[in-house]
Amino acid sequence: MIFAGIQKSSLVDYPGLVSCVLFVPGCNYDCFFCHNRTLFDGPHELLNLEKIRAFLKKRIGLLDAVVVTGGEPTLQPDLVDTLRGIHAMGYRVKLDTNGSNPDAVRKALQSGECSYFAVDYKAPAARYTEICGPAADAGKVQKTIGLLQNGGVPFEVRTTVLPQLQESDLLQMASELPVVPRWTLNRYRRPEQYKPCDEQRVDAIPWTQEQVDGFARQMLTAQPNMNLRN
Q1: 3-state class of 44 per DSSP?
Q2: What CATH superfamily classification does 5-219 receive?
Q3: Model pTM?
Q4: pLDDT tens digit string along 198-213?
Q5: Integer angstrom CA distances of residue 227 from 15, 156, 212, 230
Q6: Which residues lie closer than 8 Å to 115 by C-beta, 6 or more apart?
């Protein structure tokens, strides 16, 4: 498995735990608001896998978990083997995915190597290609979430509340999924890198945090486990 980035310590990427975050290059989506665009189309420098292993061995007892994110990790053919190696060091392992590869998620789930999953549900099904690019398929994401729903491993759904999404879109999204154990709405932040053709969308005025919190409360009827701020 190849990695193109590392965040050596994070307090926010694995709920309640101190984690290291490993970034995988490459993605099959083309979300205009992506904050990791260099992982999508470069340039990126691949990290030495042995150095990553050495770093993780040194941090045993100091870090609780390792988060594998991207890009899109499920595009990597040796995903499960890599997760197994990390888990064998004693770390909890979290896998972030756009949900586009339910077969890969099933294998990761069945392997028992992951202790937490996060799946991005980015838009109502009818708007998925508009928001995420021509390769996006909301049906596959819904299938992935269904697998996790019955998988016996904690997971969460995440949505970035884009300026292009209205409250009606978020309510539609809430109704398109089964009740999930945790759903987090994240406020949109303008990415530093984007395609010139997306400038107008990128520069749209974001919803305020108060508005995002209000959307989350409106979704409670369909999704009672919304991750609300105190």
Answers
A1: coil
A2: Aldolase class I (3.20.20.70)
A3: 0.94
A4: 999 999 999 999 999 9
A5: 11, 9, 11, 9
A6: 65, 92, 93, 94, 153, 154
